[in-house]
Write a structure and sequence with these properties.
The chain has 196 residues and is of the alpha+beta class. The protein is built from three helices and eight strands. The model has no long low-confidence stretch (mean pLDDT 81).
Length: 196
């Protein structure tokens, strides 16, 4: 009944490859943080329909950050849709370093935000949505204050708007410097022609 094995012929058993039933989840390139979840209702003919509204902040901690908001029938769907929305509305910071270049304050709707630069090692001295946006943007030393609305969505969007201002101002300064350089070059060329 049983086969006798010769010493020179040994049976080897091949292991079957393990079948993965679960799909491998994709590693997301940006870190995400849910800052607000609200259950919202819509009144229809048959009664009320409930859904969830999620506000998500995403960032890579190296200068890219975005805020997204979306609704869905359950929290998982609304979070995924918010992530996609935040990815569409991302900004890239133009400045480098651990803090912002100068103090800035601004308003979006009823949300008023104040951001100040801080010394190295001071940390993030801000609360709520401002803290989340700033940390996911990769700024490690900053002082912030929310002066107006308590809405997390409005505060997050106002912070994004303020961080975007640095980029705009830097571009304007760069254009001015280029124009100055062109004017200097023209003056030098004219002086050389006059000397000849």
């Amino acid at each position: 009944m049983f086969k006798q094995e010769n010493s020179d012929q040994k049976q080897t058993f091949k292991k079957k490859p393990f079948k993965k039933k679960r799909r491998e989840r994709e590693k997301k390139e940006y870190e995400q943080k849910v800052i607000d979840i609200a259950r919202v209702t819509r009144v229809v003919k048959g009664g009320k329909r409930f859904s969830f509204r999620t506000v998500v902040v995403i960032g890579n901690k190296r200068g890219k950050v975005g805020v997204g908001v979306s609704k869905g029938k359950d929290m998982k769907i609304s979070t995924e849709k918010s992530y996609a929305d935040a990815k569409k509305n991302m900004i890239e910071l133009s400045f480098t370093g651990n803090t912002i270049p100068y103090e800035v304050h601004g308003k979006l709707g009823s949300a008023k935000i104040l951001l100040k630069p801080a010394r190295k090692g001071n940390g993030i001295v801000a609360g709520g949505a401002v803290r989340t946006v700033v940390s996911l943007a990769g700024i490690s030393d900053i002082s912030g204050k929310m002066l107006g609305s308590k809405s997390k969505l409005n505060n997050a969007r106002a912070t994004i708007k303020l961080l975007e201002q640095f980029e705009i101002k830097k571009l304007k300064e760069g254009v001015k410097k280029d124009e100055v350089k062109k004017d200097v070059k023209k003056d030098v060329k004219e002086e050389v022609k006059k000397e000849k």
